[in-house]
Structure formats: C-alpha cells, structure tokens
Write a structure and sequence with these properties.
This protein is 38% helix and 0% strand. It contains two helices and no strands. It has helices spanning 20-29, 47-59.
Amino acid sequence: MSCIKTCICPKTECENHGKCCTCVTKHRETDSLPFCMFPENDGDKSVEAYYTKLKTRFEN
C-alpha cells in the first residue's frame, strides 16, 4: 500500500501514518475521526465532538 508524502497527523510512530485508507478504516471501526479530518479536536476525536464543533462553526 502506498503512503502520502505529507501527513499532518502528529502520530508519526503510528503504523497507519500516511496510509489514508487504512487509517480511515481503523477510525471508522472505533467511531472516531483521523486527525487530518479534524485537526482542531482538542484531543477528542469522537464523531459527536466533530458535529458539535461544526455546529458551533456554522452557527456564527
């Protein structure tokens, strides 16, 4: 499987770093979001936190 050259995820030691499809699949199975899809997550990568952040962003 190929890797992307520029991955914004700070977890460079992760075996899925730069392997987008594998990373997204892993996060889908754990009901969370990869860092690249939600970098302003304040440490919470849950889908609920993502929607809360989006709601706040678009209500203003």
